[in-house]
Amino acid sequence: MAFKTDKALQLIARAIKRGRLGHAYLITGPKEADLAGFGVKLLNLVTGLKWPDLEAWEKHGACVVRPESKSRQIKADAIREQVEPYLFITSSGQEHRLVVIADAERMNVTAQNVFLRTLEEPPPRTLILLLSEQPETFLETILSRVIRISLMPEKLERVLTNSESKLVQLLSDLAGRPTDSLSGALTLRRQFEEILEGIHDKLTKQFEAEFEAEKKFYKQTTDVGSAWLKDKENESDASIESRYRQERDALMDLLLAWMGDVLRHQVGVDHLDLPEYAASTRALSLRWDGNTLSRRIKELRKLHSNLNTNVSETLAMDAAFIAAFA
């Protein structure tokens, strides 16, 4: 269950009052939820201090770890050289030992395994915050040792990514062109696939560049063997696939939210998930009858479910778009 900031802080305050504050929290949510801002408010609540941001907290006794270098990764060395000495050797000057790991999904597998030891036996009065928009990238052993707090944006307006904006434009165009035919369904299917291909290409270029930067760094500092390179290639491929699935799921969520707004217009519900596109969704609600819309939503929901299995993405989308729009 996702909470707004004030409600989540109330739950933390209740835990503090009852002496049940956890030692490690995973703070998740979309970028609009401002995870870093919530982390600051949580630190202020626990300590009674009023620092404005993570940079101020870093200057006043907290250990803040962020992705570094061109690879934008949090490596095992960062855990060993920053987090462990801070927790087990140095004095922070605070009653609590406070650790914040921003963009925590950028911890590679090695770093996560090193960090796991810290989660298992932290010093007394330790508070660790993992801030991440991608909680599915963590090892299960880490997820089992943290308390997860899912946040929702304070304002319910959705900030679209570039790919999501392309999908919304594609959906907006539906009102002005025929789709109730095999050729129309296949055209829509091809355009959706082009958006997905753009996502995959973007992620491949990003992670390949990070891999090359990391490989170059290690070649300058140590001997790099073929086994290490193969492990890193596999890790990069897994990261690409994980991020791709996440962004594909976000597109499917957006597609279903759009169709849901069309349905809401038909049944007279005022609340819309995408109110800024009300004119387009209203036009489609007048164009499609209730049975047609119900069939389309049903097929798209089935597609969303199927994409989370081992079925072929291409075959699943072919079948779904033909069944929904032909």
Derived structural class = alpha/beta
Number of domains: 2
Overall pLDDT metric: 87
Query: How many helical stretches?
Result: 12
Strand element count: 6
H-E string: EHEHHEHEHEHEHHHHHH
Q: Assign an overall shape.
A: globular
> What's the story with the biggest beta sheet?
6 strands, parallel
Q: What share of the residues does DSSP label as strand, in percent? A: 5-15%
Spans of at least 5 consecutive residues whose pLDDT stays below 50 are none
Question: How do the strands and helices of this protein lay out in sequence?
Answer:
Layout: E1 2-3, H1 5-17, E2 24-28, H2 35-47, H3 54-59, E3 63-65, H4 76-88, E4 97-101, H5 109-120, E5 126-132, H6 140-143, E6 147-151, H7 162-172, H8 182-221, H9 226-267, H10 278-287, H11 290-306, H12 313-325
Parallel strand pairs: 1-6, 2-5, 2-6, 3-4, 4-5
Helix pairs in contact: 1-2, 4-5, 7-8, 7-9, 8-9, 8-12, 9-10, 9-11, 11-12
Nutshell version of this structure?
With 326 residues, this protein is of the alpha/beta class. Helix content is 60%, strand content 8%.
Structure description:
The chain is of the alpha/beta class. It has helices at residues 5-17, 35-47, 54-59, 76-88, 109-120, 140-143, 162-172, 182-221, 226-267, 278-287, 290-306, 313-325, and strands at 2-3, 24-28, 63-65, 97-101, 126-132, 147-151. Strands 1-6-2-5-4-3 form a six-stranded parallel beta sheet, sandwiched between helices. α1 packs parallel to α2 (35-47) and α9 crosses α10 (278-287). The two termini are 37 Å apart. The model has no long low-confidence stretch (mean pLDDT 87).
